[in-house]
């Protein structure tokens, strides 16, 4: 079937089988390999993308259902080529990853959280990433990374307060 | 982990969806898809056709409806979680919703989808049974309603007739000095509950229990109301020992589920603890004391 998807601000016309998940469509048809195929049944969270700015599991949606709604993948969060988003930067600085498999999803969940709640408590951060499994880090540095990104993003938005 | 082939149809109104469902007994309705899609990925479900009702705008709403609050079937769980009317008038639902899945699944998962799926561990089914909600469905051009307690008839099985589509759920609102409590035990945060317990109480001005509802989820094949305990506690002062005794007695003859994760005996004991805690929380909440959700 013919569908049109809006991914990272670009509209793509595609011819796919209805049973293609949004995840497989992103990876195989659009070559966006940052959405990771972990469990493929909604348990691990590695396939998380932003659907109209909200974190959702791309393995739990068929590609035709995503028609007409803007989708952001990890490839779409950087301000420009060779640059990193503040959340990506914070993950690097605090060593918020080891093997990297869960990382794109963790970063997208953090973007969705911080867009909605610029000043999250530790509990808010833990709750936000509770649907994403990481088998390496023990989560501590991921929580630290998101807290650091939140602090920096708040500072960037309110220069007058930072000067105090 | 790939679904078998199917035909995908996006419908614009409920009549079109009902006609399509009636025409093919292997067709399935898809709303949020947070349970159906994994079932299809594991090929436990192989529908010939998916009828996507997400674009029927008339099925997504939360509104006051006389003495009740009505919620449309395709209303996302995250909408309920953030809704001011739900927070003010359905405090038990507001307390339970954060326990459903994770933020990412509540962003897609719908109220009607969870109710129609009838998982014994579903928080929405438990709240619907506890509050004596009524469910509406559309079938053969008519709208019918059914009491929540007559809706779930077994694990993943409802009394919804063939070709019917759930359209809304109506939760009664309790007036007066009302408080709520909700607890569950699961292996990981927001994973499927082994046992869940919900309670809502209304206190009279002198602190006596005027009205009480206690429900247990995940312990039995369908959500359970502890009616004998409700009767014993109504009119009394809701002290800790009386709550525990009434609930333990009410749970003595239930037939709990047993699996690798939790034995029948464990579920019965945990149900008694969680329900007692939920009633104590509900009483404290009605008296204006703060309690913790998790």
Taking the sheet with the most strands of chain B, its summary is: 5 strands, antiparallel
Oligomer class: heterodimer
Provide the CATH topology of the largest domain in chain A: Ubiquitin-like (UB roll)
- Catalogue the unreliable spans of chain A: none
Total helix count of chain A?
A: 6
Supply the helix-strand structural class of chain B: alpha+beta
Strand order of the largest sheet of chain A: 2-1-5-3-4
The 3D shape of chain B can be described as globular
Q: Tell me the total number of β-strands of chain B.
A: 14
Order of helices and strands of chain A: EEHEEEHHHHH
Q: Identify the strand order in the major beta sheet of chain B.
A: 4-5-10-6-7
Biggest beta-sheet profile of chain A: 5 strands, mixed
Structure, explained:
The complex is a heterodimer of chains A (164) and B (294). With 164 residues, chain A is of the alpha+beta class. In chain A, 36% of the residues lie in helices and 14% in strands. Chain A contains 6 helices and 5 strands. In chain A, strand 3 and strand 4 form a beta hairpin. In chain B, helix 10 (227-233) runs antiparallel to helix 11 (240-250) and helix 11 (240-250) packs antiparallel against helix 12. Chain B is globular and about 60 Å long. Chain B is built from 12 helices and 14 strands. Chain B is of the alpha+beta class and 294 residues long. Chain B has 3 domains: 7-52, Uridine Diphospho-n-acetylenolpyruvylglucosamine Reductase, domain 2; 59-172, Uridine Diphospho-n-acetylenolpyruvylglucosamine Reductase, domain 3, CATH 3.30.465; 177-286, CO dehydrogenase flavoprotein, C-terminal domain (Enolase-like, domain 1), CATH 3.30.390. The two termini of chain B are 34 Å apart. In chain B, the strands form 4 sheets. A 5-stranded antiparallel beta sheet of chain B has the order 4-5-10-6-7, with helices on both faces. Chain B has a 4-stranded antiparallel beta sheet with strand order 11-12-13-14, sandwiched between helices. A 3-stranded parallel beta sheet of chain B has the order 1-3-2, with helices on one face. The A-B interface holds A 1, 17-19, 21, 24, 39-42, 45, 48, 51, 54-57, 59-62, 64-65, 109, 112, 127-128, 130-131 and B 1-8, 10, 30, 33-34, 37-38, 40-42, 50, 52, 54, 78, 101-105, 107-108, 188-190.
């Amino acid at each position: 079937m013919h569908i049109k998807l809006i991914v990272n601000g670009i509209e793509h016309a595609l011819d796919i089988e209805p049973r293609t998940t949004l995840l497989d469509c992103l990876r195989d048809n659009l070559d966006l390999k940052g959405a990771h195929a972990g469990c493929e049944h909604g348990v691990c969270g590695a396939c998380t993308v932003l659907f109209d700015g909200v974190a959702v599991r791309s393995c739990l949606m068929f590609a035709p259902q995503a028609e007409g709604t803007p989708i952001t993948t990890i490839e779409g969060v950087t301000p420009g080529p060779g640059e990193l988003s503040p959340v990506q930067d914070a993950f690097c600085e605090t060593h918020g990853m080891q093997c990297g498999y869960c990382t794109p999803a963790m970063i997208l969940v953090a973007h969705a959280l911080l867009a909605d709640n610029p000043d999250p408590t530790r509990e808010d951060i833990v709750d936000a990433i509770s649907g994403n499994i990481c088998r390496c880090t023990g989560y501590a540095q991921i929580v630290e990374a998101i807290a650091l990104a939140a602090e920096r993003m708040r500072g960037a938005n309110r220069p007058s307060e930072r000067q105090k | 982990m790939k679904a078998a082939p199917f035909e995908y149809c996006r419908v614009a109104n409920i009549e079109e969806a009902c006609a399509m469902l009636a025409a093919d007994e292997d067709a399935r309705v898809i709303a949020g898809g947070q349970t159906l899609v994994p079932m299809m990925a594991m090929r436990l479900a192989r529908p010939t056709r998916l009828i996507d009702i997400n674009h029927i705008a008339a099925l997504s709403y939360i509104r006051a409806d006389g003495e009740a609050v009505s919620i449309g079937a395709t209303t996302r769980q995250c909408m309920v979680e953030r809704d001011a009317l739900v927070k003010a008038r359905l405090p038990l639902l507001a307390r339970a919703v954060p326990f459903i899945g994770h933020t990412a699944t509540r962003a897609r998962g719908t109220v009607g989808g969870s109710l129609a799926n009838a998982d014994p561990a579903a928080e929405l089914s438990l709240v619907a049974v506890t509050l004596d909600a009524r469910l509406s469905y559309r079938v053969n051009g008519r709208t019918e309603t059914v009491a929540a307690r007559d809706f779930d008839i077994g694990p993943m099985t409802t009394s919804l007739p063939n070709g019917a589509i759930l359209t809304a759920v109506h939760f009664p609102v309790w007036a007066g000095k009302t408080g709520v409590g909700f607890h569950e035990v699961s292996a990981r945060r927001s994973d499927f509950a082994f046992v869940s317990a919900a309670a809502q109480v209304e206190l009279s001005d002198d602190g006596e229990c005027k009205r009480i509802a206690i429900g247990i989820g995940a312990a039995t094949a369908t959500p359970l109301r502890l009616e004998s305990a409700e009767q014993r506690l109504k009119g009394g002062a809701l002290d800790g020992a009386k709550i525990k005794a009434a609930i333990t007695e009410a749970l003595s003859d239930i037939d709990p589920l047993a699996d690798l994760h939790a034995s029948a005996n464990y579920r019965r004991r945990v149900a008694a603890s969680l329900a007692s805690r939920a009633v104590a929380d509900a009483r404290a909440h009605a008296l204006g004391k703060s309690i913790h959700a998790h």
